[in-house]
Amino acid sequence: MLNEPTGDSMTEEKAEAGLTKIGATPSTHYFTPTDERDLLIVAPNPGLIDSPDQARENVAYQTAHAQSLSGKRCGVVVQMDRLFGQDAASRQIYAEGMKPEFFFGAALVVPSPLSRAIGSFFIGLSKPPIPTRLFKSVDEALAWLRSIRGNAN
């Protein structure tokens, strides 16, 4: 669904998939499903090696988006398969940034062995404070977030 190169075609393909691009940081693009602003899809630039500085920028963006939801909390889908690497400091920044007052769940999309390893390290070592699970596809991740959303909001 979201495994495409960056550029203008990225936004066009998202529109066809029923997604709206809502913004970006230098390392990541952000989308929401149409009419579901409380579900945030995080699409790192392909091949990204995440750093603490990038993690802080992304946490700030995600938190600002969650705060804009007028009291609703946000669910986050992260396309881990687009990452090439992520160090322990970056993982910790993301885990600490997932504050339960703003976020109700995080779904990590991990269809490849490398992305599964990065996602497993994140969950196992960083211990995020919100429900966090691994999925093979964005569609499965969104379905899970929708299923827990009612209890969260």
Spans of at least 5 consecutive residues with low confidence: 1-9
Radius of gyration: 14 Å
| Annotated CATH topology | Transcription Regulator spoIIAA
Beta strand count: 8
Helix amount, in percent?
Answer: 40-55%
Order of helices and strands: HEEEEHEEHEHEH
CATH architecture: 2-Layer Sandwich
Strand content: 25-35%
Main sheet summary = 6 strands, mixed
Overall domain count:
1
Q: Would you tell me the structural class of the helices and strands?
A: alpha/beta
- CATH homologous group name: STAS domain
Architecture overview:
This protein is α/β, with parallel strands linked by helices. The protein has 5 helices and 8 strands. The strands form 2 sheets. It has a 6-stranded mixed β-sheet with strand order 1-2-3-5-7-8, with helices on both faces. The chain has a single domain, classed as Transcription Regulator spoIIAA. Strand 7, helix 4 and strand 8 form a beta-alpha-beta unit.
Summarize this structure as a short list of keywords or feature phrases:
globular; two-stranded parallel ribbon; 153 residues; 8 strands; disordered N terminus; six-stranded mixed β-sheet; Transcription Regulator spoIIAA; single chain; alpha/beta; 5 helices
Topology:
Layout: H1 8-16, E1 19-25, E2 28-33, E3 39-44, E4 48-50, H2 52-67, E5 74-79, E6 83-86, H3 88-97, E7 103-109, H4 113-126, E8 132-135, H5 138-152
Parallel strand pairs: 3-5, 4-6, 5-7, 7-8
Antiparallel strand pairs: 1-2, 2-3
Helix pairs in contact: 2-3, 3-4
Summarize the structure.
By secondary structure, the protein is α/β, with parallel strands linked by helices. It has helices spanning 8-16, 52-67, 88-97, 113-126, 138-152; strands at 19-25, 28-33, 39-44, 48-50, 74-79, 83-86, 103-109, 132-135. Helices cover 42% and strands 28% of the residues.
